[in-house]
Q: What sequence folds into this?
């Protein structure tokens, strides 16, 4: 029988002591202790080499690792990681393979272990995200089908607030603009978009959140900026309130932007913009993107075939629409009544489509503003002079005559 399970170390010591006394043959001694001659010789050799200490249980791990990563490959991995401290194993391997095509590289999981052993990976706090739901947002079908735009939260630069405006192509993840703005206002934002349109052409749509200057409380959420887009033939898309995941590709880019170009902030706006410019070039042309099969955004992007026009086009509506031009105060005249739209629509053309008897749906370009109910206005006008009718049918009474609200 083999060594007693209760105390194998004690049995091995007794075996060696009996062997040293040489009272019986080695074969008989092994039979007495219930072990094979091969096992007996193994313990005798260990005892002669290292003494009684060697009789204890030893690790069965192999002394050599034929698949171990060579030191020079490990050094290359760590060197690239030092240059790109926010890149993961897959991106590091893509860059290493490009520069060293003849070197056998380890698996991404092995690279992760190397980075962890060398202190390059810190444990992240796990975040819980809500599942996306269906909406009217369209798919990223091709380059320039949808551009994404947003402000990456402000932070102090040189004692003042820096508001980074970012624009990217949703399909290719190509970062079109990353501009350090002093204020998130339309007058600051419009020149950035105009520059992007001149360089890359016009997208079919631009997706944003519901904040200024992309949206306001006006009907249809229109703003001066979105009105300009519509006149250029660009469809504004806005995600649902509290659902940044609906613009998730752009939000994910913001996390990388913060880590590599804004943390810590630079000492001045000029220095901060230079950091943004370096990040934009590396993000587009060097950094592999997993969703693009480890290709760069620049390899997947191409400019739009819709050039920025020299003159701003007008708004056109189908032939069955009634078209009205708003006054400088945003009022239109229709059905012998004046209706208030919004001051952001001053001197613009709106279209009205009849949906049923004396009820008209009002549009600015493709954006529906609300329902204009002529019957309700007539009833209130006949009953009391000067009633204000809002777009949703709500009525408030005033003593003096004012335009009706849609």
A:
């Amino acid at each position: 029988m083999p060594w007693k399970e209760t105390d194998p170390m004690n049995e091995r010591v007794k075996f060696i002591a009996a062997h040293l006394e040489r009272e019986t043959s080695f074969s008989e001694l092994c039979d007495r202790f219930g072990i094979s001659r091969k096992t007996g010789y193994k313990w005798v050799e260990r005892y002669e080499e290292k003494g009684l200490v060697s009789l204890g249980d030893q690790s069965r791990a192999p002394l050599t690792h034929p698949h171990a990563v060579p030191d020079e490959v490990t050094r290359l991995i760590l060197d690239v990681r030092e240059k790109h401290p926010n890149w993961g194993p897959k991106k590091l391997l893509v860059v290493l393979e490009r520069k060293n095509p003849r070197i056998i590289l380890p698996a991404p999981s092995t690279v992760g272990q190397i980075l962890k052993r060398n202190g390059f990976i810190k444990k992240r706090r796990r975040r819980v995200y809500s599942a996306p739901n269906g909406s009217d947002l369209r798919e990223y079908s091709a380059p320039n089908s949808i551009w994404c735009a947003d402000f990456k939260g402000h932070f102090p630069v040189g004692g003042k607030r820096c508001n980074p405006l970012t624009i990217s192509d949703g399909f290719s993840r190509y970062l079109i603009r990353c501009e350090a703005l002093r204020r998130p206002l339309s007058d600051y934002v419009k020149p950035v978009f105009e520059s992007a349109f001149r360089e890359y052409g016009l997208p079919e749509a631009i997706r944003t959140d519901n904040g200024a200057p992309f949206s306001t409380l006006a009907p249809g959420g229109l703003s001066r900026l979105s009105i300009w887009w519509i006149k250029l033939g660009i469809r504004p898309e806005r995600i649902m309130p509290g659902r940044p995941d609906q613009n998730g590709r752009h939000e994910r880019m913001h996390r990388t932007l913060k880590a590599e170009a804004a943390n810590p902030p630079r000492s001045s706006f000029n220095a901060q913009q230079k950091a943004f410019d370096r990040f934009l070039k590396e993000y587009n042309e060097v950094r592999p993107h997993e969703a693009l099969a480890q290709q760069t955004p620049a390899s997947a992007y191409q400019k739009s075939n819709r050039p920025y026009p020299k003159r701003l086009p007008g708004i056109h509506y189908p032939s069955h629409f009634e078209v009205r031009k708003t006054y400088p105060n945003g009022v239109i005249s229709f059905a012998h009544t004046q209706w208030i739209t919004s001051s952001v629509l001053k001197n613009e053309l709106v279209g009205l489509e009849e949906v049923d008897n004396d009820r008209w749906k009002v549009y600015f370009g493709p954006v529906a503003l609300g329902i204009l109910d002529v019957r309700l206005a007539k009833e209130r006008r006949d009953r009391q002079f000067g009633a204000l009718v809002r777009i949703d049918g709500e009525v408030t009474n005033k003593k003096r005559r004012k335009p009706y609200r849609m």
Notes: The chain has a mean pLDDT of 82. The CA atoms of residues 164 and 180 lie 4 Å apart. The first helix runs from residue 8 to 21. The longest strand covers residues 160-169.
